[in-house]
Design goal:
The chain has two domains: about 100 residues, no CATH class; about 30 residues, no CATH class. Helices cover about 65% and strands about 0% of the residues. The chain starts with 14 loop residues before the first helix and ends with a helix. Helix 1 packs across helix 2 and helix 2 packs antiparallel against helix 4. With about 140 residues, the protein is mainly α. The protein has seven helices and no strands. It comes from Brassica oleracea var. oleracea. This is Reverse transcriptase zinc-binding domain-containing protein.
Length: about 140
């Protein structure tokens, strides 16, 4: 028996559809991940995994993207299960906020804090220069 996607209703729920060809999961993932990977977002699961594997393992952005991916997969899967058992539905915007707050109060809190600082100030080249170790000019 083929089961439909609990998030968008499309027939044939597969891993590749669910992560991230499904409009719900793709919208949530893109709204969060574009901050770190900019234009390197693709709804294809294999492409996403391959892209993560090619990123430098020692860079903070790589650690953040992998942490974000794991957190996103976890929360979207929980939403799918909740819907399957007729529990309340979470909007895409609320899901995004849940994932953003997932790191608060955990060992990954510092990484999430760093991410938010980076996003907040990335448009300011002076602050960006300072964050990268250039100091104040």
């Amino acid at each position: 028996m083929v089961q439909g996607c609990e998030l968008c209703g499309e027939k044939g729920e597969t891993r590749d559809h669910f992560f991230f060809a499904c409009p719900y999961s793709d919208t949530v993932w893109e709204s969060l991940a574009r901050r770190l990977v900019e234009n390197s977002i693709n709804p294809d699961w294999q492409w996403t995994v391959h892209r993560l594997q090619k990123m430098s393992p020692s860079e903070v952005d790589t650690i953040l993207v992998k942490l974000l991916l794991k957190t996103t997969v976890y929360h979207i899967w929980r939403e799918r299960t909740a819907r399957r058992h007729q529990q309340s539905r979470v909007s895409m915007d609320h899901m995004r906020r849940l994932i953003e707050k997932a790191g608060e109060g955990t060992r990954s809190d510092q990484l999430y804090h760093w991410l938010h600082i980076r996003i907040r100030y990335e448009s300011s080249s002076r602050v960006g220069y300072w964050i990268q170790g250039g100091g104040y000019s």
